[in-house]
Write the structure tokens for this entry.
Amino acid sequence: MELILRRDHHPEGTNGSLCDGGQQICSTIELPWRENQRMVSCIPEGRYELVKRYTDKRGWHLLVKNVPNRSGILFHPANDALKELKGCIAPVSKVTGPGKGTQSRVADSRLKTLVFEAMERGESVFLIIQKANNV
């Protein structure tokens, strides 16, 4: 399975659309692009493997592997990138502004259900991050 994340960068945050085979799964919010600096920037465009991981803090979630010069990049719920993210990607049901969205837990649950089912079928799951066409 290959998920495509097309992003628009803004000074206050990064907004995206996450799709599987042309079908939108959810929107996303991230920190603004700040040269891939740890804790303050979204991650660079590229192709990354997603794996299922469990922690006491987050329960089952998706980890983005092999991000250059970064580690611990996750998909997890958040509705305000600047206040709640440190480089991770938050699925949201609706984008409400640069780096802001609503109903993140609903979108995160929908994404995990789709991806975990693919993993249970033995599929590898990859995330391809691209700039949106209109940028």
